[in-house]
Amino acid sequence: MTAFVPIEMVTRKIYLIRGQKVMLSMHLAELYGVETRTLNQAVKRNIQRFPEDFMFQINESEAEQLVS
Length: 68
Fold this sequence. Notes:
By secondary structure, this protein is an alpha+beta fold. The protein contains 4 helices and 2 strands.
């Protein structure tokens, strides 16, 4: 059985950071129904499957802007 996620739920979790549309790992993990650390571990184990610009670390300033 395939469960569909409402598009509104996804679009609310897309942010513009450094001029790129991104989703935070915690939101991606939520969509896939896994823990954030599990998602991050899977990506790191299979990094060759992803484009070079697939992920990046946000800095403290960017994190603060997301919270406010």
